[in-house]
Specification:
mainly beta; five-stranded antiparallel beta sheet; 3 helices; single chain; two-stranded antiparallel ribbon; 139 residues
């Protein structure tokens, strides 16, 4: 599949390129989402322009505001999710540490953001933890 990669800091012409990448297969606790819509926001600009907490690792695949349909599930996810319309919350945490267990997911030491720390949704499919999905009630 085709994906947009940020290859370094700079202007879009200097730092963004389209590349071919493998279609992801979900891990046991993940689902694969057929992306229908993705928005660009300030995190995508930060990934390309840099910010003080950026580790400078490239390439990055942006796209953190995601809506689509589940088209495949991992072994530990209920098949009822297949074909479900979903919205993806871009913050991913461990769900097991004291912060997560107290609802403070953004304080988790393993906290990552889809589109910045993890591959984003600018290809047409994305694998993501089931726990960050919300059913899209507008469908």
């Amino acid at each position: 599949m085709r994906a947009s990669h940020i290859t370094g800091h700079g202007t879009p012409a200097e730092a963004v390129e389209l590349v071919d990448v493998d279609t992801p297969n979900p891990d046991p606790n993940e689902v694969r989402i057929r992306v229908e819509a993705v928005a660009l926001n300030h995190l995508d600009v930060f990934a390309r322009m840099g910010h003080p907490e950026d580790d400078g690792t490239f390439p990055k695949r942006s796209g953190c505001d995601i809506a689509g349909f589940v088209d495949s599930v991992g072994d530990d996810v209920d098949d009822d999710w297949i074909d479900e319309a979903v919205i993806v919350y871009p913050g991913v945490s461990c769900d097991d540490c004291e912060y997560c267990l107290n609802g403070e997911h953004t304080m988790c030491h393993e906290y990552e953001i889809i589109g910045e720390d993890r591959p984003g949704a600018l290809p047409n499919t994305l694998s993501s933890q089931r726990g960050v999905l919300r059913r899209n009630q507008n469908r």
